[in-house]
Amino acid sequence: MSGPVKAPAAHQVLAILGHLGRQAAPVPAAAVARELGLPRSTTYQLLATLAESGFVVHLADERRYSLGVAAYELATGYARQAPLQRVARVPLARLVDRTGHTAHLAVMHGHEVIYLIEERAPGRPPLVTDVGVRLPAHLTASGRAMLAALPAAQIRALFPQPEAFVTRHETGPRSLSALRRLLVETRRRGHAVEDGEVTPGFVSIAVAVLDHMRHPVASVAVTMPRPELDPDLREVVVAEVGRTARAIAARISGHTHPPASAPAQTPRDRRGRAAGAP
Protein backbone atom coordinates (compact mmCIF):
# COMPACT_ATOMS: atom_id res chain seq x y z
CA MET A 1 0.00 0.00 0.00
CA SER A 2 1.31 3.41 -0.93
CA GLY A 3 1.72 6.17 1.64
CA PRO A 4 -0.51 9.26 1.60
CA VAL A 5 -0.12 11.45 -1.45
CA LYS A 6 1.01 14.86 -0.21
CA ALA A 7 1.30 16.69 -3.50
CA PRO A 8 -0.45 19.18 -5.76
CA ALA A 9 -3.44 18.12 -7.84
CA ALA A 10 -1.26 17.26 -10.85
CA HIS A 11 0.68 14.73 -8.79
CA GLN A 12 -2.57 13.32 -7.43
CA VAL A 13 -3.90 12.87 -10.96
CA LEU A 14 -0.72 11.08 -12.00
CA ALA A 15 -0.92 8.87 -8.92
CA ILE A 16 -4.50 7.89 -9.81
CA LEU A 17 -3.59 7.10 -13.43
CA GLY A 18 -0.58 5.09 -12.32
CA HIS A 19 -2.66 3.16 -9.81
CA LEU A 20 -5.37 2.33 -12.37
CA GLY A 21 -2.73 1.23 -14.84
CA ARG A 22 -1.34 -1.30 -12.38
CA GLN A 23 -4.68 -2.99 -11.68
CA ALA A 24 -5.75 -6.21 -13.34
CA ALA A 25 -9.41 -5.03 -13.52
CA PRO A 26 -11.50 -1.87 -12.95
CA VAL A 27 -11.63 -0.71 -9.32
CA PRO A 28 -14.05 1.31 -7.12
CA ALA A 29 -13.23 4.94 -6.34
CA ALA A 30 -13.15 4.09 -2.62
CA ALA A 31 -10.34 1.59 -3.26
CA VAL A 32 -8.36 4.21 -5.19
CA ALA A 33 -8.77 6.71 -2.35
CA ARG A 34 -7.75 4.15 0.26
CA GLU A 35 -4.67 2.87 -1.58
CA LEU A 36 -3.38 6.36 -2.37
CA GLY A 37 -4.32 7.97 0.94
CA LEU A 38 -6.52 10.59 -0.74
CA PRO A 39 -9.77 12.08 0.59
CA ARG A 40 -12.76 10.44 -1.06
CA SER A 41 -14.17 13.77 -2.21
CA THR A 42 -10.88 14.66 -3.90
CA THR A 43 -10.70 11.23 -5.53
CA TYR A 44 -14.21 11.49 -6.98
CA GLN A 45 -13.54 15.00 -8.30
CA LEU A 46 -10.30 13.98 -9.99
CA LEU A 47 -11.83 10.83 -11.44
CA ALA A 48 -14.71 12.86 -12.86
CA THR A 49 -12.26 15.29 -14.49
CA LEU A 50 -10.23 12.42 -15.92
CA ALA A 51 -13.40 10.79 -17.26
CA GLU A 52 -14.42 14.03 -19.01
CA SER A 53 -11.09 14.13 -20.82
CA GLY A 54 -11.15 10.43 -21.76
CA PHE A 55 -8.28 9.28 -19.56
CA VAL A 56 -10.63 7.31 -17.33
CA VAL A 57 -13.86 5.40 -17.99
CA HIS A 58 -16.57 5.25 -15.33
CA LEU A 59 -18.32 1.88 -15.51
CA ALA A 60 -21.57 3.04 -13.92
CA ASP A 61 -23.19 -0.41 -13.74
CA GLU A 62 -20.21 -1.78 -11.83
CA ARG A 63 -19.44 1.44 -9.92
CA ARG A 64 -15.83 1.08 -10.93
CA TYR A 65 -13.20 2.97 -12.89
CA SER A 66 -10.66 1.93 -15.51
CA LEU A 67 -8.25 3.63 -17.89
CA GLY A 68 -9.79 5.28 -20.95
CA VAL A 69 -8.95 5.72 -24.61
CA ALA A 70 -6.84 8.83 -24.02
CA ALA A 71 -4.59 6.81 -21.72
CA TYR A 72 -4.27 4.19 -24.46
CA GLU A 73 -3.26 6.91 -26.92
CA LEU A 74 -0.51 7.98 -24.55
CA ALA A 75 0.68 4.39 -24.34
CA THR A 76 0.77 3.99 -28.13
CA GLY A 77 2.65 7.29 -28.40
CA TYR A 78 5.19 5.91 -25.96
CA ALA A 79 5.54 2.80 -28.12
CA ARG A 80 6.04 4.89 -31.29
CA GLN A 81 8.70 7.09 -29.72
CA ALA A 82 10.45 4.13 -28.05
CA PRO A 83 12.03 6.17 -25.23
CA LEU A 84 12.74 3.09 -23.16
CA GLN A 85 14.88 1.61 -25.92
CA ARG A 86 16.64 4.95 -26.39
CA VAL A 87 17.60 5.37 -22.74
CA ALA A 88 18.55 1.71 -22.28
CA ARG A 89 20.71 1.02 -25.31
CA VAL A 90 23.96 2.61 -24.10
CA PRO A 91 23.80 1.11 -20.56
CA LEU A 92 23.07 -2.28 -22.12
CA ALA A 93 26.04 -1.99 -24.48
CA ARG A 94 28.25 -1.18 -21.49
CA LEU A 95 26.87 -4.20 -19.69
CA VAL A 96 27.96 -6.41 -22.58
CA ASP A 97 31.44 -4.87 -22.49
CA ARG A 98 31.75 -5.51 -18.74
CA THR A 99 30.52 -9.11 -18.76
CA GLY A 100 31.48 -10.41 -22.20
CA HIS A 101 28.03 -11.92 -22.68
CA THR A 102 24.79 -11.03 -24.50
CA ALA A 103 22.35 -8.72 -22.70
CA HIS A 104 18.64 -8.04 -23.13
CA LEU A 105 15.95 -5.55 -22.19
CA ALA A 106 12.40 -6.92 -21.87
CA VAL A 107 8.97 -5.68 -20.76
CA MET A 108 5.88 -7.47 -19.47
CA HIS A 109 2.85 -7.91 -21.73
CA GLY A 110 0.16 -9.87 -19.90
CA HIS A 111 1.75 -13.11 -18.72
CA GLU A 112 4.50 -12.89 -21.36
CA VAL A 113 7.67 -10.87 -21.83
CA ILE A 114 8.57 -9.04 -25.03
CA TYR A 115 12.24 -8.46 -25.81
CA LEU A 116 12.91 -4.86 -26.90
CA ILE A 117 16.71 -4.91 -27.18
CA GLU A 118 19.29 -7.63 -27.69
CA GLU A 119 22.91 -6.51 -27.42
CA ARG A 120 24.84 -9.52 -28.67
CA ALA A 121 28.37 -9.90 -27.37
CA PRO A 122 31.07 -10.32 -30.05
CA GLY A 123 31.53 -13.95 -31.04
CA ARG A 124 28.48 -15.14 -29.12
CA PRO A 125 25.82 -17.27 -30.87
CA PRO A 126 22.32 -15.92 -31.59
CA LEU A 127 19.71 -16.67 -28.93
CA VAL A 128 15.97 -17.23 -29.01
CA THR A 129 15.49 -13.90 -27.21
CA ASP A 130 15.70 -11.71 -30.32
CA VAL A 131 13.93 -8.33 -30.57
CA GLY A 132 10.15 -8.74 -30.70
CA VAL A 133 10.15 -12.32 -29.42
CA ARG A 134 7.55 -13.20 -26.77
CA LEU A 135 8.15 -15.85 -24.12
CA PRO A 136 6.21 -17.00 -21.03
CA ALA A 137 7.17 -14.66 -18.20
CA HIS A 138 7.31 -17.42 -15.58
CA LEU A 139 9.99 -19.31 -17.56
CA THR A 140 12.39 -16.42 -18.16
CA ALA A 141 14.73 -14.62 -15.79
CA SER A 142 13.47 -11.32 -17.21
CA GLY A 143 9.86 -12.22 -16.46
CA ARG A 144 10.61 -13.57 -13.00
CA ALA A 145 12.47 -10.39 -12.05
CA MET A 146 9.41 -8.30 -12.94
CA LEU A 147 6.87 -10.72 -11.47
CA ALA A 148 8.75 -10.67 -8.16
CA ALA A 149 8.07 -6.92 -7.94
CA LEU A 150 4.30 -7.24 -8.52
CA PRO A 151 1.57 -7.59 -5.87
CA ALA A 152 0.27 -11.09 -5.18
CA ALA A 153 -3.18 -10.19 -6.48
CA GLN A 154 -1.76 -9.16 -9.85
CA ILE A 155 0.18 -12.40 -10.15
CA ARG A 156 -3.01 -14.37 -9.43
CA ALA A 157 -4.78 -12.41 -12.16
CA LEU A 158 -1.98 -13.10 -14.65
CA PHE A 159 -1.98 -16.85 -13.91
CA PRO A 160 -5.61 -17.74 -13.09
CA GLN A 161 -5.52 -21.34 -14.34
CA PRO A 162 -2.96 -24.18 -14.40
CA GLU A 163 -3.07 -24.01 -18.22
CA ALA A 164 -1.20 -20.69 -18.00
CA PHE A 165 1.93 -22.52 -16.86
CA VAL A 166 3.25 -23.69 -20.20
CA THR A 167 6.77 -25.13 -20.50
CA ARG A 168 9.35 -25.32 -23.29
CA HIS A 169 11.51 -28.19 -22.10
CA GLU A 170 9.33 -29.79 -19.41
CA THR A 171 10.91 -27.64 -16.69
CA GLY A 172 9.77 -24.59 -14.76
CA PRO A 173 6.90 -23.82 -12.34
CA ARG A 174 3.62 -25.54 -13.19
CA SER A 175 1.35 -24.06 -10.53
CA LEU A 176 0.71 -20.78 -8.78
CA SER A 177 2.18 -22.11 -5.53
CA ALA A 178 5.37 -23.20 -7.33
CA LEU A 179 5.66 -19.79 -8.96
CA ARG A 180 5.14 -18.06 -5.61
CA ARG A 181 7.97 -20.07 -4.05
CA LEU A 182 10.24 -19.19 -6.94
CA LEU A 183 9.40 -15.48 -6.62
CA VAL A 184 10.04 -15.54 -2.87
CA GLU A 185 13.52 -16.87 -3.60
CA THR A 186 13.98 -14.24 -6.32
CA ARG A 187 13.15 -11.45 -3.87
CA ARG A 188 15.49 -12.92 -1.28
CA ARG A 189 18.42 -13.02 -3.75
CA GLY A 190 17.63 -9.66 -5.32
CA HIS A 191 17.88 -11.07 -8.84
CA ALA A 192 16.15 -13.70 -10.97
CA VAL A 193 17.73 -16.81 -12.49
CA GLU A 194 16.66 -19.12 -15.31
CA ASP A 195 18.69 -22.24 -15.99
CA GLY A 196 17.95 -24.18 -19.17
CA GLU A 197 14.19 -23.58 -19.07
CA VAL A 198 14.26 -21.42 -22.20
CA THR A 199 17.30 -22.88 -23.97
CA PRO A 200 19.09 -25.95 -22.56
CA GLY A 201 22.69 -25.25 -21.64
CA PHE A 202 22.19 -21.51 -21.11
CA VAL A 203 21.68 -19.54 -17.89
CA SER A 204 20.17 -16.06 -17.57
CA ILE A 205 20.39 -13.60 -14.68
CA ALA A 206 18.00 -10.62 -14.54
CA VAL A 207 17.09 -7.60 -12.39
CA ALA A 208 13.93 -5.51 -12.73
CA VAL A 209 13.99 -1.84 -13.71
CA LEU A 210 11.74 -0.11 -11.16
CA ASP A 211 10.02 3.26 -11.53
CA HIS A 212 9.64 5.80 -8.71
CA MET A 213 6.63 3.83 -7.40
CA ARG A 214 8.71 0.62 -7.26
CA HIS A 215 6.71 -0.79 -10.19
CA PRO A 216 8.64 -2.92 -12.73
CA VAL A 217 8.71 -1.20 -16.11
CA ALA A 218 11.31 -3.53 -17.66
CA SER A 219 14.10 -5.90 -16.81
CA VAL A 220 17.75 -6.29 -17.71
CA ALA A 221 19.22 -9.74 -18.28
CA VAL A 222 22.49 -11.37 -19.29
CA THR A 223 22.56 -14.85 -20.86
CA MET A 224 25.63 -17.10 -20.92
CA PRO A 225 26.53 -20.74 -21.58
CA ARG A 226 26.22 -22.76 -18.38
CA PRO A 227 29.80 -24.21 -18.57
CA GLU A 228 31.21 -20.66 -18.42
CA LEU A 229 29.26 -19.61 -15.32
CA ASP A 230 31.84 -20.06 -12.57
CA PRO A 231 31.36 -18.33 -9.17
CA ASP A 232 33.55 -15.37 -10.16
CA LEU A 233 31.62 -14.67 -13.36
CA ARG A 234 28.29 -15.10 -11.56
CA GLU A 235 29.32 -12.45 -9.02
CA VAL A 236 30.34 -10.07 -11.80
CA VAL A 237 27.13 -10.60 -13.79
CA VAL A 238 24.85 -10.16 -10.77
CA ALA A 239 26.58 -6.91 -9.82
CA GLU A 240 26.67 -5.49 -13.34
CA VAL A 241 23.08 -6.43 -14.21
CA GLY A 242 21.90 -4.75 -11.01
CA ARG A 243 23.96 -1.66 -11.69
CA THR A 244 22.60 -1.43 -15.25
CA ALA A 245 18.98 -1.82 -14.11
CA ARG A 246 19.45 0.99 -11.59
CA ALA A 247 21.12 3.21 -14.20
CA ILE A 248 18.21 2.75 -16.62
CA ALA A 249 15.71 3.41 -13.82
CA ALA A 250 17.53 6.67 -13.01
CA ARG A 251 17.43 7.72 -16.67
CA ILE A 252 13.69 7.01 -16.88
CA SER A 253 12.88 8.95 -13.72
CA GLY A 254 15.12 11.85 -14.65
CA HIS A 255 16.89 11.68 -11.29
CA THR A 256 20.65 11.72 -11.04
CA HIS A 257 21.86 8.22 -10.34
CA PRO A 258 23.82 8.08 -7.07
CA PRO A 259 27.49 7.22 -7.43
CA ALA A 260 27.96 3.51 -7.78
CA SER A 261 30.31 1.53 -5.66
CA ALA A 262 33.52 0.31 -7.25
CA PRO A 263 32.59 -1.75 -10.32
CA ALA A 264 32.88 -5.48 -10.12
CA GLN A 265 35.86 -6.99 -11.90
CA THR A 266 35.20 -8.24 -15.39
CA PRO A 267 36.68 -11.47 -16.72
CA ARG A 268 39.18 -9.34 -18.65
CA ASP A 269 40.18 -7.51 -15.44
CA ARG A 270 40.85 -10.78 -13.66
CA ARG A 271 42.92 -12.15 -16.54
CA GLY A 272 44.99 -8.94 -16.65
CA ARG A 273 45.63 -9.01 -12.91
CA ALA A 274 46.64 -12.67 -13.06
CA ALA A 275 49.13 -11.75 -15.77
CA GLY A 276 50.60 -9.00 -13.61
CA ALA A 277 48.82 -6.08 -15.29
CA PRO A 278 48.09 -3.03 -13.07
From TrEMBL:
Q: Where is this region: Disordered?
A: 250-278
UniProt domain IclR-ED: residue ranges: 70-254
- Recite the UniProt keywords alphabetically: DNA-binding, Transcription, Transcription regulation
Set out the biological process GO terms recorded for this chain's protein: negative regulation of DNA-templated transcription
Q: Where is the HTH iclR-type domain?
A: 7-69
This entry's Gene Ontology molecular function terms read: DNA binding; DNA-binding transcription factor activity
Gene3D superfamilies, per database record? 3.30.450.40, Winged helix-like DNA-binding domain superfamily/Winged helix DNA-binding domain (1.10.10.10)
Q: What is this protein called?
A: IclR family transcriptional regulator
Q: What species was this sequence derived from?
A: Pseudonocardia cypriaca
